[in-house]
Specification:
This protein is α+β, with helices and mostly antiparallel strands. The protein is built from two helices and three strands. It has a three-stranded antiparallel sheet with strand order 1-2-3. The longest helix is centred in the middle third of the chain and has 20 residues.
Length: about 110
């Protein structure tokens, strides 16, 4: 049997030249934030070449589409589409993206 890895999410993606680093996080069993929710703490890092990262994203997008098609995941339009906005935002405006968008690109 091969070792398996569980993650609660991705904290950060860093591109440096031809290398992409993806920092994985887990919810801490002991550390809490101001709202008494478990803190997200660094657990491991995945390191890809740019090409392998792009291929991995393609595989994940296909998997996500399969989950959407099966009804397991429901996609919601971005806030600007729901509000009839043009999609152009001032740099000072608050973040209004939908919750199913990665926090890595805010």
């Amino acid at each position: 049997m091969h070792p398996e890895l569980y993650t609660d999410g991705i904290e950060e993606i860093t591109v440096s030249g031809t290398i992409v680093r993806v920092d994985l996080v887990s919810l801490s069993p002991t550390e809490r934030d101001a709202n008494n929710a478990p803190k997200r703490v660094f657990s491991q890092r995945l390191i890809f070449s740019v090409e392998s990262f792009a291929n991995s994203v393609d595989v994940m997008q296909k998997a996500l589409q399969g989950l959407v098609d099966a009804g397991v995941v429901r996609r919601t339009p971005p806030a600007e589409a729901r509000n009839g906005s043009s999609g152009v935002h001032d740099a000072q405006s608050p973040n209004t993206r939908s919750l199913n968008v990665s926090s890595n690109f805010r």
